[in-house]
Design a protein that fits this description.
The chain is an alpha/beta fold. Helices cover 28% and strands 31% of the residues. InterPro entries: CheY-like_superfamily (IPR011006), LytR-like (IPR046947), LytTR_DNA-bd_dom (IPR007492), Sig_transdc_resp-reg_receiver (IPR001789).
Length: 246
């Protein structure tokens, strides 16, 4: 069971997040604090596994609180919960496990709890080592720069000298040629299936390699597989746990 802290100066936001967290069987004790200073006083008495921090709190804001918590002997996993995207860069500089936008969706929160579980497993390994931080990518959407995790990218679509990264929530255009991403991300489970598509094998839900029109389904999108790249895809699939269905 994961013990957590919610720090937010708005009581309705605390109540809503606490309600959603209680629906997850992995969550145990939930502590709440209405300010950064109150959170620190509480955590000196009751250490927690994870802290859900609002950024815009009076006095000690969420980033200040996160820096203070990192100095604790038992430092909790950090998840920032905020109404805007501007703090994403600073959040991941602080090694945040996740960055949630209000209003928080239940399924999105479950993914955050999963990432907390992963971080806890890493720190409790027989030979302690710092958790491997996910590869982060700077993207721009609506004039705002934010960070996304590479393992959230389901597939990449070539668009001239640019590449469009497709995630569950949105797509982002980055000025990186597809050939560069294919080379750099090969070890992360990405494979080229078409001159226009690079896919993450971990997000593949269906494979059709028989017939005249081979395809894979990734995140609800059915993508074509070119004949030239079909042998390479078969080879990669055979080395994974995916079962190829003709």
């Amino acid at each position: 069971m994961i013990s957590v802290l919610i720090a937010d100066d708005e009581q309705p936001a605390i109540d809503e997040l606490a309600f959603l967290l209680r629906q997850d069987p992995r969550i145990g004790v939930i502590h709440v604090a209405a300010s950064g200073s109150e959170a620190i006083r509480l955590l000196t008495r009751e250490p927690v596994d994870a802290a859900f921090l609002d950024i815009h709190m009076p006095g000690l804001n969420g980033f200040d609180l996160a820096r203070a918590l990192q100095r604790f002997e038992q430092s909790p996993a950090l998840v920032f919960v905020t109404a805007d995207e501007e703090g994403a860069l600073e959040a991941f500089d602080l090694a945040a496990v996740d960055y949630l936008l209000k209003p928080v969706r239940a399924e999105r929160l479950q993914r955050s709890v999963g990432r907390i579980v992963e971080a806890m497993k890493s720190t409790s390994a027989a030979e302690p080592a710092p958790p491997r931080q996910p590869e982060m990518i700077a993207v721009t959407l609506g004039g705002t720069t934010r960070m996304i995790r590479r393992d959230d990218v389901r597939y990449v679509q070539a668009q001239g000298d640019y590449a469009r990264l497709h995630t569950e929530e949105a797509s982002y255009l980055v000025r990186v040629p597809m050939a560069d991403l294919e080379r750099q991300w090969a070890d992360a489970g990405f494979v080229r299936i078409h001159r226009s598509y690079l896919i993450a094998l971990g997000h593949v839900s269906r494979v059709r390699l028989g017939g005249d029109h081979a395809s894979v389904t990734v995140g609800g999108a059915e993508l074509p597989v070119s004949r030239r790249l079909l042998p390479g895809l078969r080879e990669r699939l055979e080395s994974t746990t995916l079962r190829v269905r003709p």
